[in-house]
Automatic annotation (TrEMBL), chains A, B:
The modification N6-(pyridoxal phosphate)lysine is found at residue 227. Catalyzes the cleavage of L-kynurenine (L-Kyn) and L-3-hydroxykynurenine (L-3OHKyn) into anthranilic acid (AA) and 3-hydroxyanthranilic acid (3-OHAA), respectively. The gene is kynU. Coiled coil: none annotated. This is Kynureninase. Its EC number is 3.7.1.3. Pfam families: KYNU_C. Belongs to the kynureninase family.
């Protein structure tokens, strides 16, 4: 049986423990929701003051050049590339994950249309994050060209869903609800054998698991920077395209930031070379600039060490729940296989919503996802082994006492 | 002949003079570029600290509910509505102007497609802001349904461009380069007589001129919040749809924020009622929240008084240039007619770029736009009559001395 002392010892030997001091964490809180909104880097407040008071307030319009605002999407994309297994000039940070999915999907469909015009099926997973499916549906509805969304599920596994009609396979690398992770290289190979291009949503993967987009032979990827990358609420998303597509892709959200010579103000769109053509309109500079604070911390860490600790912490969570909460109706829905697990752990519980509210009230912040899922995000840069012990201890106390079954824990807000 | 003393007297009698203290303006600068990037409201720095340190740092994920983050696009849209002549629940603040143009265009084309499927022409102005044209071109290329962009210019006036094939008329209310303004009500009536729907880009109009979207019978409008609304660099844009279209419009950038029940996480997109279906992905909260500081100042001002002062200041600018710089090759390209003038004044000069760099070096910040255009934005909330005098005085000095013709004023940056 594990003890809290074992966890204290593990924290003392943790080579990543020093990263915690780079974040401003609320007192008396164990934050297991970094997979939804990452925490505040210590440097972010000073950075915001610099951007707002100096660059905006004093520099004003000159800051587009002098403070490098116009270059931020490409400069931050180049920094982020190291965490994605991508190269220079392959990533930009811009817009939202949903919008970048639309751009990547349009680009992939156009490539296929030119080579294999009969391919009209887009494959995704029924359990994918909803916005991924909604954006595909919006595209299909807009195009009115006979495209079709085919969803994998228990009745239709991925292998059976891929055939010669498939243009694009669009998947989340790590599932937002279960934490299940695809083998990206194997999945790309499978898709390519069937002639499909792949688009990866890395929202729950970037900064959480080692990524090797080029080595895994992916085609397109998009993702989120406000989860494991600690970019701040709604910080802009990213998009990557494989070098082999860089010179031939096209995308329809062709705003002036993606123009080859935006300040010539010509009336015809001429796409910029390479990844910059994925840019569209003027970016929210304050939110964009703040992302660099979280990114710079992540770049100091050895991603393999982050992965080892992530697996150790999720293993610990699973083991402690088994040891200490075994009599309660918690069903683990996260894969036990390390190769198939991202960086969060999820359980179904018949009263998941109320249990999570009780946990939050007790200072253990995870989140709840329909249906009845308790979700616990594990972020190795600011969580320790003792945090996991204390979180499960609180969960045990709430379940043993039944304190979750109080009226205040059943009330739902706009965002649950 | 006007004197600087006349300007000092006008400032003393200016009922809007008190607004200047609500902004943090750089010393020794006359800022005539508020039509490109508005200035810093005094309250914005404290607001950013609240959002970053308290809401993000301490509230973390709870702030989506507790700090009202999720409601920001609709709540700020409702505030902004007063400046647009729009009603409650008709406006959301979200994404960028380019992206909102794409949404509005898709919505308008779909409405037309259902009623008048033969209409396949989109009319805009050759001299429109480029991103407006680029987004139309992207849409046409994406749809592959035989749509066509028809551009008005000297050879093809608007009246001649409208016929029974036109689905949508997309115009900027105030031209970004010349400052020329359309009569919105008359233009809507003209378009409607020809069966076309209208989309207005209000980037250079919102906060600068009185707007009455409903009274003028417009169909759709989008616009920018970082110019005359002082929202901060790249603060999110807005979109409005006329109440008569609210229950029937559709748009393809159908992300989860536009879903009727986003947190049920269903796999089928069901649009939210009304304007919220124009939302797509997670918004950049820090940049979005900061907009409220500028908005709150604008809402304190009487828009008719703002308009009177704007016209008085642009009249003054034009008059002083005539009186004092008459021997230099400056060609006014802004309409003298008040009814056709927005809130900036533009001149062509054969060496416009260098002249503007010399002005900026001397502390008079306007901007330059191809081809050879000097652009001077007039923002009545923080500019006075003496500022205009001093700006023209500096222009006169630079032109009289020829000091603009120095090597450093001919060098171009990435953003000119």
């Amino acid at each position: 049986m594990l003890s809290r002392n074992d966890c204290l010892q593990a924290d003392q030997q943790d080579p990543l423990a020093r990263f915690r001091q780079q974040f401003a964490l609320p007192a008396d809180t164990i934050y297991l929701d970094g997979n939804s909104l990452g925490v505040l880097p210590q440097g972010a407040l000073a950075r915001s003051q610099q951007v707002i008071a100096e660059q905006w307030g004093q520099g004003l319009i000159r800051s587009w050049n002098d403070a490098g605002w116009f270059e931020l999407p490409a400069r931050l994309g180049n920094k982020l590339a190291a965490l994605l297994g991508a190269g220079a000039d392959e990533v930009v940070v811009t817009d939202t994950t949903s919008l970048n999915l639309f751009k990547a999907l349009a680009a992939a469909l156009r490539i296929q249309q030119q080579a294999h015009p009969a391919r009209r099926v887009i494959v995704s997973e029924r359990d994918n994050f909803p916005t991924d499916l909604y954006m595909i549906q919006g595209m299909i509805d807009l195009l009115q060209q006979g495209y079709e969304l085919r969803l994998t599920d228990e009745a239709l596994p991925l292998e059976a869903a891929l055939d010669d009609n498939v243009a694009v396979l669009l998947l989340s690398h790590v599932n937002y609800r279960t934490g299940a992770m695809y083998d990206m290289a194997a999945t790309n190979a499978l898709a390519h054998r069937h002639g499909a291009l792949t688009i990866w949503d890395l929202a729950h993967a970037a900064g959480a698991v080692p990524l090797a987009l080029n080595a895994a032979d992916a085609d397109f990827a998009v993702g989120c920077t406000y989860k494991y990358l600690n970019g701040g609420p709604g910080s802009p998303a990213f998009i990557w395209v494989a070098p082999r597509h860089q010179d031939r892709f096209w995308q329809p959200l062709s705003g002036w930031w993606g123009h080859a010579r935006p300040f010539e103000m010509g009336s015809d769109y001429q796409p910029a070379g390479g990844i910059r053509r994925f840019l569209c309109g003027t970016q929210p500079i304050v939110s964009l600039a703040l992302l660099e604070c979280g990114l710079d911390i992540a770049l100091q860490a050895d991603m393999d060490a982050v992965r080892r600790k992530s697996l150790a912490l999720t293993d610990l969570f699973i083991e402690l729940v088994e040891q200490r909460c075994g009599e309660h109706p918690l069903t683990l829905i996260t894969p036990r296989d390390h190769a198939r697990r991202g960086s969060h752990v999820s359980y179904r519980h018949p009263h998941g919503f109320a249990v999570m509210q009780a946990l939050i009230a007790a200072g253990v912040i995870g989140d709840y996802r329909e249906p009845e899922v308790l979700r616990f995000g594990v972020t190795p840069l600011y969580l320790g082994y003792t945090d996991i012990w204390d979180a499960v201890d609180t969960l045990k106390r709430i379940l043993d006492s039944g304190s979750w079954d109080a009226p205040q824990f059943h009330r739902r807000g706009a965002v649950t």
